[in-house]
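Researcher: Next sequence.
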Amino acid sequence: NGRQTIAFSGDTAWGAALIRLVEHVDLALLELSLPEQPADPVSHISLAEALEVHNQLAARRIVWTHCYDELAEQARVHGLEVAWDGMRIPLAWGNQDE
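Model: Next structure:
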């Protein structure tokens, strides 16, 4: 149909609503700002949580944002795609398989 779908989360915590938001979108931009999950739940996603659910999410492409340098490097080591300041992501409006 030539349309692409994008999901974006600001500061957030994992939950069913977030998982539904990114389900089957072409591009999910999700925040990742904690190296470890704190004992008390907060409105941020930790690297451990991202690694646990990354491959289970049904988004076509996931780019993690809001990462500090050291955390971004740790995420990349684990194979996650991490955004950087000024990053541009082209969106294809034609055949998505090209």
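Model: The chain has three helices and three strands. The chain has a mean pLDDT of 85.
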